[in-house]
Amino acid sequence: MLTTSFRAGVLVKAVACAGLLLLRPSSGAAQSKVAPPPPPRGKTSYAPVARGVSFDRMVAHFRRLKPKVMAAHMRLLMERYDLSDRPSPDVTMSGGKPIQVGVRVKLPDGVTWEQLSRMTPEEIRRQGLWPKGFLPLPHPNHDEGGMLFPAHHIAELKRQTGRDLTRFDLDFDLPAHLLPEYPPPMYLTTRPDLGDVSQGKLVTLANYYELFNGILNPKQLEGLRLLVTPFPQQQFNATGDRRSLKPHRGVSCFDCHVNGHTNGATHLVGDIRPQAFRHRIDTPTLRGVNIQRLFGSQRALKSVEDFTEFEQRAAYFDGDPVIATKKGVNVLERGSQVHFMAEFQAILALPPAPKLRWDGKLDPKKATPSELRGQELFFGKARCAECHPAPYYTDNLMHDLKTERFYEPQWVGRRYAAGDGPIKTFPLRGIKDSPPYLHDGRLLTLEDTVEFFNLVLELRLTAEEKRDLVAFLRCL
Length: 476
What we know:
Blueprint lengths: L10 H13 L7 H4 L20 H26 L6 E6 L5 E3 L12 H5 L3 H7 L23 H11 L46 H5 L5 H10 L38 E3 L11 E3 L21 H10 L7 H7 L6 H12 L23 H10 L19 E2 L10 E3 L2 E3 L5 E2 L21 H11 L6 H11 L3
Antiparallel strand pairs: 1-2, 3-4, 5-8, 6-7
Helix pairs in contact: 1-3, 8-11, 9-11, 12-14, 13-14
């Protein structure tokens, strides 16, 4: 398999990779018969430091390929999902954006969700009936990878600061209506009386001091400054193999974790080789970091300090410290800078949940009958609470759902789907504010999430039980 194109520095490899991307089927049970699996290991764990072509030639090449690459990926998305804008008439995120409703994953022809739920994993796998939208979601160009930002974030950041996160080779893929609200509210554990301390603004280096001076202590204020300061990153830096047209100061932590939450930005994990096995990442929220004990979807880092330092030293550069040195790694000082950044992250509060009591469960006087039935299912038949116990709805452990028992290993775009492995249990408090779902964002709505776990856990929930469970999740 040919891996990341110009990070390898050879133009002919890039052309070959792009051609394979356009020719290979996007998904489906029969794909393993069309294309062989990738080699179990790559030729090397490292990316070459020296590039072999001029920057202008590289830009021209990627600009020429971009329309075809994005069209191929959009066909894959349309094959998997209903991407239409269907907002809820009565349920909103914390800042007022309506949540999206309905199952968006498309079923194979001729089957219903009820029929699938009555089948065993072996039957689903043998007949190739696992919904394509439940397969791992690939990056828009999985060979290339790298951070991708929604267009509305790029536009607002450019307006405020003049910094441009546009890539000349790729665009973000999911529509804005399927993403978290923007900019999201920011809540602090130390000042719940203030509500949204961001005042409805995108917090950046241009306004953080004005917004937070007098609210934070000096260490927290310095930590926030570092979180909104751009530092060199794999695609956004000053070297000649960047993916921005102009030399770039880089990316800040809050370019993905907007206002301490998320804007749905995506990239690939740096932990896995070869390239085809790397997971897409859906940026998780930082709200409620203080109650978490594991960080990173699979890395299982044990503190937010470890996570903060790891992101700067490795994750920003695809987990390659050699390339990090070339592109300008920001080496944080553990005793002050890392500590200050972690101290601020630790006071990012979960969003309000007016129907929940102190123990994280519904107040019967405020909840509807459907929500109360959903809570009973959550802690009973649906088995959700086995991994997501109240009050914060996480067990701070990792679990392997073994989804590969439902499908044959296969190519999905340029991502090879052969199982997810153990994934950390993300907190469900505030879940309606954080679409899309699962570690790679493959589930677009809460309804999709319930259908997914109904099959994975072999629950056989009825249609009414699924509706009640979704109603409860919206209260968290």
